[in-house]
Design brief:
The protein is of the alpha/beta class. It is built from six helices and ten strands; from the N terminus they run E-H-E-E-H-E-H-H-E-E-H-E-H-E-E-E. The protein has a single domain, classed as DHBP synthase (Alpha-Beta Complex), CATH 3.90.870.10. A hairpin with a 5-residue loop joins strand 9 and strand 10. Helix 1 crosses helix 5. The longest helix is centred in the N-terminal third of the chain and has 12 residues. The protein starts with a strand and ends in a 10-residue tail after the last strand.
């Protein structure tokens, strides 16, 4: 049975943040809000958590997971960032974007695209996410909470808890989230918009 946490969207309660991080460190899977949609997340080394996320969303093993990072300095640990990439990331983070970058050796192989050795990187503009990452001290492995057969992600935390309370360890209520997923931008060679979603991409044109 999952635990249900109501966090203030701008000033999340530190006591509750610490409790959620304890759940994450104990190989938990949590539902949390971002600056686009609600998402499923667990720690980077949580193999069983990854399997549970695959099972909840009925994803194939080749599905591209995202790494939720606190800032630019943490991105550079897990992804190869050149000068062009750095300037673009600095201009567009935090924000509702997922950047596809070549991964460093810090990324477990099970998280990489099997052919391209790349990883999706996110720095959400969301106070709850930032508080979690600050307390955790490492990125979250994550994917949008889009259930099988649905066209849009789940957005109401109460409904999410009713649906997934036996599948996850914690649901964070940070208020209603949107239904639009992030824009996905590949930086593997040329700058390429893979998916246009939430977030202004006009500066890329």
């Amino acid at each position: 049975m999952s635990q249900y946490f109501e966090l203030h969207p701008q000033t999340p309660q530190r006591r509750l943040v610490s409790q959620i991080v304890d759940i994450l460190r104990s190989d938990g899977v949590v539902v949390y809000p971002t600056d686009s949609c609600y998402a499923l997340g667990c720690t980077l080394d949580n193999k069983s958590g990854l399997e549970r996320i695959y099972r909840i969303r009925r994803l194939s093993k080749g599905h591209h997971m995202s790494l939720i990072c606190k800032d630019l300095s943490s991105i550079s640990i897990y992804a190869k960032v050149d000068n062009r990439d750095y300037r673009l990331l600095k201009a567009m983070t935090p924000g509702p974007y997922t950047f596809i970058l070549k991964a460093t050796n810090e990324i477990p192989r099970r998280l990489l695209h099997p052919k391209r050795k790349s990883i999706g990187i996110r720095v959400p503009d969301n106070a709850i996410v930032q508080a979690l990452l600050d307390e955790l001290g490492e990125p979250l492995m994550s994917t949008t909470l889009l259930m099988p057969g649905e066209d849009y992600p789940l957005s109401d935390p109460y409904d999410i808890n009713q649906l997934l309370k036996s599948e996850v360890d914690a649901v964070i209520d940070g208020g209603a989230c949107g239904l639009e997923e992030t824009s996905v931008i590949s930086l593997e060679s040329e700058v390429e918009v893979i998916r246009e979603g939430k977030g202004d991409i006009s500066k890329l044109c």
